[in-house]
Amino acid sequence: MSLQLKGVGKTIGADTHIFPTDLELEPGTFNTLLGTTLAGKTTLMQLMAGLEIPTQGEIWFDGKNVTGTAVQSRNVSMVYQQFINYPMLSVFENIASPLRVGRYPRQEIKRRVGEIAELLRISPMLNRKPSELSGGQQQRCAMARALVKESDLILLDEPLANLDFKLREELRDELPKLFAERECVVVYATTEPSEALLLGGQTAAMHEGRIVQFGVSSEIYETPNTLKSAQVFSEPPINLVNVVKRGTKIHLGEATKWTAPKGIPNFVDGEYIFAIRPHHVTPTRPSTTAAIIYGIVDVAELSGSESIIHFQAHDRPWISLSHGVHPFAAGTKAKLYADVVNGLYFTPNGQLVTS
Amino acid sequence: MNKPVNQKAWFFVLPVLLLVAFNAIVPLMTVVNYSVQETFGNNEFFWSGVIWFEELMRNPRFHDSLGRQFTFTLTILAIEIPLGVIIALAMPRKGIWVSVCLVLMALPLLIPWNVVGAMWNIFALPEIGLLGKTLNTLGFDYNYTRQTGAAWFTLITMDVWHWTSLVVLLSYAGLVSIPDAYYQAARIDGASPWAIFRYIQLPKMKRVLTIAILLRFMDSFNIYTEPLVLTGGGPGNSTTLLSIDLAKKALGEFDLGPAAAMSLIYFLVILLTSWIFYTLMMRNEEQ
Q1: What pLDDT is recorded for position B41?
Q2: From the CA of B191, how many Å to the nearest CA of chain A?
Q3: A51 contacts in chain B (CB < 8 Å)
Q4: Which helix (H) or strand (E) holds A5?
Q5: Could you say which architecture CATH assigns to the domain B36-286?
């Protein structure tokens, strides 16, 4: 029961919301759409669901072309960022509503609602109205509604975005378990790279209406194939700086240089963009091969367990993320270490230099 | 426990107190004053107790105009509220037509009441008015200056034309505040249009509808200018609503005592009905 997008695109007037996209999602997988606001995550989900009709391309489900099929005949569920429940109905009736439309027998409805409520830990609230629940419980109720029918495709559009930190963590930990036993395609949209990694499964990194990379989440994080993909998958933003390769050395500005990685045949001399994640730029020296970066501190954010230092070096802003408390006064000079062996090299047009 | 007393706070309350006093309390108390006294020429007043209230309660003229008032108000509510909701549901949510519809809807609300009355007075004239002439040409015997039924029909049509827009605008505001995701969720469920209305739109419109019903109730209960200009309360007394009756009594006959008593009862009816309605609606809200 795989979901296939074949050259699916969506344009509204002169605006292209989704550029032609090919994507195949397997049943029983957890897929994350990762991208900033307006990257096209929601539009892509609506196309998958059938809430929007693509202006080009075809959507196939389980070997059938469902491009023109109405959403209610597709067996799809969706959970939204807002907590969408019927305000007048009890939690029980809310969860039961998709089953009532499907004309399930009474006992079956009762059993299924009971099961799913147990799973989402809202059994004691079944007789209440959604307005009498906390935000987290309201979203659990909305999720129960999506899970109660055996959907082939479950779409979750930033379901945790409106919850506070604690509830978000709690629900996020439960999420993969909820879907573990199911033979459906799960698609989850988020703006947070850490969520994509924590939830596991596969990630499609999105940028301005395109899927820039699709694959196993941790692999994309390790080796983003383009600069865009690296930027989408880094929070705080990845540090980018222009470097020049000459011989066996990489030169950053006049004074800083380090040994270029060896054994990459197409890594010829010339200009490259060097990308290094903030946690590989630290105030303490991580290894003897680390390059020294001198900068002027903009601001240092100290959270106790972590320090985020924003600073200027080589005519551009940098971010350093390190463990422990490292106070720096704004405007002072700072000496930081970039653990360059963990850096990535991109060609000026944004392709990863790989072996 | 010795709390510090700060008398300065009075200066902040005083302006509002003065405003309310001159705006509401003083006029109201003047009316209360009139309602318990007998007036003679030469500005002489005598205490008469509740005699005017007793008389009013037994007066068939008052019963009739109160009855007509309720008939009018309930009829226009029964028409304007559902009609307003239906029009609001049919209005576009996006695009240039939104502003066009909104302006068209707001137009009747901008016309002064006596102009509306005069417009409909001429519009419905059987010999020369577009509506009256057309109806008569089509074979209906229609003359609102002579027939009670025709007068009521014109009066109610006029009010529906004038005020349904208010219900439309309020309902529309309620409708557009519903996030798109609700409709999408309902589509995914395969919910019928009736279910969408019953379980999403109506509950979300409940607050604005409560306000709309209250406003329409109070306004229609207070209506004076339009029927006065349109029919002058006639034919006979058939469209003499409470306010017209009251004005006749107070200004036409200069019976200050009975008119004041009538005003107070009139005021209490509106206050009580609005309060009961509002309490009931809001209690449901809390459940």
Answers
A1: 67
A2: 7
A3: 184, 187-188
A4: strand A3-12
A5: Orthogonal Bundle (1.10)
